[in-house]
């Protein structure tokens, strides 16, 4: 069965209500004060080369501490929670604080492509994938979140060679394929990502 057919089938199942609810929660989060949105930015910084479930657990544990703990305290807390890269990610989160007031950029009329470019260029440790992830989780649904789980599905569906790494050029190339799939399904790429994740993991996280 093609990927298109699998997702069409899923969209007629009860899981579609869970996905719709999750998208609505993302839209609500994007309207929250900058400090709350910053916690989601930290979650996305943590999930690079890590698990979403693990990132969710850590986000709940640290919460406002993302803004108040020193870099050393953050590293110690991350280490105590079993995080794989405590020192590096503590530095990324600490450095990201300088952009707290600038997160108001999310409430401007800039395009989602411009927002992603700004995030990837200005927030240390945030590449295209996690910038797209952060934007999706704060209510921007027109960008693809391409990790290796999603990449495996795309490679299988379109019979393309799996890249060893995702350069900006390769990322945008694969994003176009996912945009085409989303258009055929009459859904956003943010919604499509949740269906793809469900296909791969049987879960709807964030």
Automatic annotation (TrEMBL):
SUPFAM superfamilies: DNA-glycosylase. Its EC number is 3.2.2.-, 4.2.99.18. The keyword Nucleotidyltransferase does not apply. GO terms for biological process: base-excision repair. This is 8-oxoguanine DNA glycosylase/AP lyase. The active site is at residues 129, 147. NCBIfam families: PRK01229.1. Belongs to the type-2 OGG1 family. Gene3D superfamilies: Helix-hairpin-Helix base-excision DNA repair enzymes (C-terminal), Hypothetical protein, domain 2. Residues 46-204 form the HhH-GPD domain. One of its GO terms (molecular function) is hydrolase activity, hydrolyzing N-glycosyl compounds. Catalyzes the excision of an oxidatively damaged form of guanine (7,8-dihydro-8-oxoguanine = 8-oxoG) from DNA. Also cleaves the DNA backbone at apurinic/apyrimidinic sites (AP sites). The record marks 206 as: Important for guanine/8-oxoguanine distinction. It catalyses: 2'-deoxyribonucleotide-(2'-deoxyribose 5'-phosphate)-2'-deoxyribonucleotide-DNA = a 3'-end 2'-deoxyribonucleotide-(2,3-dehydro-2,3-deoxyribose 5'-phosphate)-DNA + a 5'-end 5'-phospho-2'-deoxyribonucleoside-DNA + H(+). Keywords: DNA damage, DNA repair, Glycosidase, Hydrolase, Lyase, Multifunctional enzyme. The keyword Lipoprotein does not apply. Pfam families: Ogg-HhH.
């Amino acid at each position: 069965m093609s990927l298109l057919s699998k997702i069409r089938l899923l969209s007629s199942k009860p899981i579609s209500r869970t996905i719709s609810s999750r998208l609505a929660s993302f839209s609500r989060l994007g309207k929250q004060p900058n400090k709350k949105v910053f916690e989601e930015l930290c979650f996305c910084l943590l999930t690079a080369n890590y698990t979403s479930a693990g990132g969710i657990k850590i986000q709940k544990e640290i919460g406002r501490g993302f803004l108040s703990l020193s870099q050393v305290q953050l590293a110690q807390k991350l280490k105590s929670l079993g995080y794989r890269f405590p020192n590096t990610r503590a530095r990324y989160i600490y450095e990201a604080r300088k952009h707290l007031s600038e997160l108001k950029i999310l409430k401007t009329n800039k395009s989602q492509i411009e927002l992603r470019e700004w995030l990837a260029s200005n927030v240390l440790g945030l590449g295209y994938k996690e910038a797209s992830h952060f934007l999706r989780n704060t209510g921007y649904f027109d960008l693809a979140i391409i990790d290796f789980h999603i990449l495996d599905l795309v490679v299988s569906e379109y019979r393309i060679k799996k890249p060893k790494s995702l350069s900006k050029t390769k990322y945008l190339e694969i994003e176009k394929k996912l945009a085409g799939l989303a258009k055929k399904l009459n859904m956003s790429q943010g919604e499509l990502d949740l269906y793809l994740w469900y296909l791969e993991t049987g879960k709807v996280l964030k």
